[in-house]
Amino acid sequence: MNKQTMDFFVNDSPRQGLIGLSLAGLLLAEGLGRGEPPQIPAGVAVALNQAVIPRLKWALTPVAAGDRIDIFSVIAGG
Amino acid sequence: MSFYQQWQQLDWDQLQAQVVNATAEQVAAALARPRKSLADFAALISVAAEPYLPQMMQAAQRLTRQRFGQGVSMYLPLYLTNLCANDCSYCGFSMSNAIKRKILNEQEVLAECEAIARLGYQNLLLVTGEHERKGGIDYFRRMLPLIKPYAPYLMMEVQPLATDEYAELVGMGLDGVMVYQETYHAPSYAAHHLRGKKQDMAWRMDTPDRLGQAGVDKIGLGVLLGLADWRTDSLMLAHHLQYLRKTYWRSRYSLSFPRLRPCTGGISPVSPVSERQLVQLVCAWRLLDPELELSLSTRERPELRDALIPLAITSVSAGSSTQPGGYAQPAKELEQFHISDERPTNAVAQALKQRGLELIWLERGPAVN
Amino acid sequence: MQTQPLKIAGRSFASRLFTGTGKFASAELMAQAIAASGSELTTLAIKRVKLTGEDPQILAPLRGLGVNLLPNTSGARTAEEACYVARLAREALGTHWVKLEIHPDPRYLMPDPIETLKAAEQLVKEGFVVLPYCGADPMLCKRLEEAGCAAVMPLGAAIGSNQGLTTRQMLQIIMEQSGVPVVVDAGLGAPSHAAEAMELGADAVLVNTAIAVAGNPVVMAQAFALAVQAGRLAYEHGLGAVSQRAVASSPLDPFLLRLLEDPA
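Above: the input entities. Below: the structure tokens describing the complete assembly.
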């Protein structure tokens, strides 16, 4: 394993990424970006270890080894 | 948010018009509806409802028996003082009235309690004038521990207090508080309350809010019938009650029906209420609110009391003295108003029993005290 | 003909029909049906994404309609989970309104009263406008109101059951007592059920399944809109009472009979 990478979880699935990865970078890496340049659409929310992270802080929040990231989206429902 | 703010949104003239313009059709529709609205109540207290009075009496009696069984609660007023720092045009206790003033001390209070206990009463209503300094919270703090052993169900009819004061008294065994708005008609209120803290209409009107917040078990309301148009005042009171029921739903509510009576230095009612109208009003309240406790005092004459109580009344006094110290030592010159039903307790009890009613000498209070 | 506007937490609604976005065959059909209903408030849910790269198709058409969005906490089984979902929803949608629903029971999806009250207290503290879905329990509704909820949403019948107002008697008590708007939610299967709730005095109804799974959801949405308006108009303009059966009268006291004859 490369020393530059770390392990963490996204929606309970194991992931690997470069140290220093931000939440914003992670969301793009997960294919959630839309448009050119890719942006994360409205209706998405992210929690880092069960704490909700506001959209404005995604770019400033680094992912650490062992973190559990949960990505949520709005869906139809009654 | 308190009721005073809601009351400011209510228009007296509009409510009055609602009652005046009520039609026989509206009365009939109101009678047919299982749950009455405030609009129904307006119709039921109107002139248009007078031909329907026999039906109203029957319906009121049915609802009363369905909810309260045969029980009628017996209470006795205990006048602690006739000292008063208000001047109210209709009241014998007014400070400008040259009557003898009296405030009971510890020994006198105990003597009254002993005399009352001998009559069999356990539901007591403490009554005072409104004198903050001599008959205020400090006085109540001293007297309640003496009285409570004689009054397993203890109510008060005194000047409005603050929420924390009510809460403190609840902790000392206070179960109910009666506070009558007298009138919701601002010009009449101003005209009849000439001096003293009672001039503050908002403070008085928000008293039931404070009682609800203090967790008082029973909140007693009423208007002084005849001071202003009694029908509009009653409709205002119905708005007040509806607000209170929604907001302070843990409390019970009771209503009294004082009609303006002659007293020392007194005035005549601008809107007199006949006995028949009083019966109509009591029945209309029962139809509006089947769970409401309705109280009738000894201000009314025996014939009316004996006939009206079985229809809708749930709480009555008998053998009352309206003067401080009157049970141990009667002395008429101190009294607040003349009573009309002067029969002793056992005579009233006999009359009610003959009409199939059961007397309740101790009200159900809070389960944990 | 206009009905009085409904106010919840300072926001005014001309339409008293609230809708949901679930169970529609497509996002287009959903948007058309909600537009046809005239609804100004519609619910949606929050779920963890499957990370398959699929777009959430739902938001864009709703934004186009200009309808207010009410995220719900469905899926939450405890107060803690519900608060978590509410916070996520606030981030995802930029609204602090939330329909609080907690149903640990997967079969009938009955709302858990104890967890709901706990969550309501917490979310109010955090500044949410809380609309709790709850059983038709008058005491619970008063407690939720005291906790600071902006409305209460008692159920008419089990979610998706189309049974109508099986809780009618309790709903009547709730409406009589409530100091906040009462929105009848769940179980309304036909426009007549919605009209009945409005005639009783409901401030609004929420309908989802009955519209979404109808043969023609767009027309059914219109039918519900008409029913809600008819029921509300009837309520506001003095519905006639059903006559009670005659009751045998007991003889009146002689004093009262004399009083009745008096000219005064």
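Note for the figure: Chain A has a mean pLDDT of 88.
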